[in-house]
Write a structure and sequence with these properties.
The protein is about 50% helix and about 10% strand. It has 23 helices and 13 strands. A hairpin with a 4-residue loop joins strand 3 and strand 4 (about 65-70). Bound molecules: adenosine-5'-triphosphate and magnesium ion. Magnesium ion binds near residues 26, 39 and 41.
Length: about 450
């Protein structure tokens, strides 16, 4: 059954049991825009207890806040009781919620375009806050008094930016002004939630516009001061005719199309250490050490944004290695193969391509690496080892720390093309690491 039909079924079952029920929020917005909704949320007059009694498969995800997930043939639907949110003590979560009416439920939502309900039985949109008009005009507008709404929940400021860039909308004037007023307080929100919205800003389209908005509203300075510091960090014009490090970084973001989170953060942070590493040198400026320091800064930033360890490690690696490819034509064959055999090489080369396109447009090094990857192929870049530790033992060497050096040297010779077979490798080891009379290993 298509997702929409399942959502319709949930609404119908709630109605049959005597409750009001509608599709609500983002899915209504997306359907009116002609975009497939990611998920369908249902708003209802039924309490969580009622919902659990009607549907056999439910998960009480946030029953304190009136939310129950109904699972229908494996798909989750969030069914939320009409409510009005109580006071927010800390800019994070309402202290308590009170079940309420449809109208109250509309008014507790963040933006007009997110506050429409849809009655799928009678095919009718319920729009109490002129969301339809804002949708047509392409505007993100807070419901009610924007200052009050952002004081209640600071995360809404970042959501406004994320929605605007993802939909290609503008933020309505008073709403934008209120974000400027409250930007400094955004850190009252749990970093986990901020990190999730920043990630979506980067990956769901319009990332460049999103970061321009974060900058214009003052949110960037508070959430990512290291990125804000790129502004005004001038570079040598022959390498970077486009402008300062921030302008360059925005250009990278503009090239992102449905990126993985790691590529997106890699692009955002690849030059994050240029401001602290900047050294004027006559007519030019240098940024020695910025990939290494950048990797450390990226790690710190992604920990702050509560990104996963795997994401953090990959991005740090991308940042640390983002200039290696310019050395590729000068690398020894074995070094080049090891570089091309790295786990994230395709993502790294994509970052390099976008980086080059966002500065002087020279794709020479990038194309060299792609050509070598294609020429050499997987098996030559990452061949089966000719020898392993147990082979050395069989040859009479005593196991120990020298093994990894010996095996590394064999691999090096193999990657250089000097060794092609096991027998050659055995002869080579015997010649280069003669066994002494006691059967130990001579230091080479
Ligand atoms: P998408 O799922 O595409 O990101 P969405 O609008 O469904 O968009 P959710 O985060 O799933 O976004 O939230 C569902 C609905 O809950 C929103 O449409 C909005 O009405 C409401 N909502 C979400 N977060 C807040 C908030 N911080 N303050 C007020 N209402 C909110
Ligand atoms: Mg949603």
């Amino acid at each position: 059954m298509p997702l929409y039909d399942k959502a319709l079924h949930i609404v119908q079952r709630l109605r049959e049991a005597g409750h009001e029920a509608y599709l609500a929020g983002g899915c209504v917005r997306d359907r009116l825009l002609g975009r497939p909704p990611k998920d369908y949320d249902v708003a209802t007059g039924a309490t969580p207890r009622d919902v659990q009694a009607i549907f056999p498969d439910t998960v009480p995800v946030g029953s304190r806040f009136g939310s129950v997930v109904v699972v229908l043939e494996g798909d989750p639907f969030e069914v939320t009781t009409f409510r009005s949110d109580g006071p927010y003590s800390d800019g994070r979560r309402p202290v308590h919620v009170r079940y309420g009416t449809l109208e109250e439920d509309v008014r507790r939502r963040d933006f007009t375009i997110n506050a429409m309900m849809y009655d799928p039985v009678d095919d009718r949109v319920i729009d109490l806050v002129n969301g339809r008009e804002d949708l047509d005009r392409g505007l993100v507008r807070a419901i009610g008094d924007a200052d009050e709404r952002f004081a209640e929940d600071r995360l809404r400021m970042v959501r406004a930016v994320r929605l605007a860039c993802g939909l290609g909308f503008a933020i309505d004037g008073p709403t934008l002004g209120a974000i400027r007023n409250h930007a400094a307080a955004v850190t009252e929100v749990a970093w986990e939630r901020i990190g999730a919205e920043i990630t979506r800003t980067l990956t769901e389209g319009g990332a460049r516009r999103g970061f321009e908005l974060l900058d214009e509203t003052g949110l960037l300075e508070v959430i990512l001061p290291e990125v804000a510091a790129m502004k005004g960090c001038e570079q040598t014009p022959d390498y970077h005719p486009e402008g300062d490090v921030f302008v360059h970084t925005l250009l990278l973001l503009q090239h992102l199309e449905n990126p993985a989170e790691t590529l997106a953060y890699g692009c955002l942070l690849h030059d994050v250490a240029k401001p602290p590493c900047r050294q004027p040198a006559g007519e030019r400026v240098t940024f020695y050490g910025h990939p290494e320091l950048g990797a450390e800064m990226a790690t710190e930033i992604l920990r702050r944004l509560k990104r996963s360890r795997a994401v953090t490690e990959r991005v740090a690696w991308l940042v640390r290695c983002h200039l290696h490819y310019t050395q590729a034509p000068k690398m020894r064959l074995s070094t080049l193969k090891r570089f091309l055999a790295e786990d994230g090489i395709h993502e790294l080369l994509e970052l390099c391509r976008i980086d080059a396109l966002s500065s002087n447009g020279d794709l020479g090094y990038y194309e060299f690496c792609q050509r070598k990857l294609a020429e050499l192929g997987e098996t030559e870049v990452r061949p089966e080892p000719l020898l392993r530790g147990r082979d050395l033992i069989r040859l009479g060497y005593a196991p120990g720390p020298s093994f990894s050096a010996m095996l590394g040297a064999v691999e090096e010779a193999q990657l250089e093309g000097a060794l092609g077979t096991r027998d050659q490798a055995v002869a080579w080891v015997r010649e280069h690491y003669p066994l002494d009379r006691n059967g130990g290993n001579d230091e080479p």
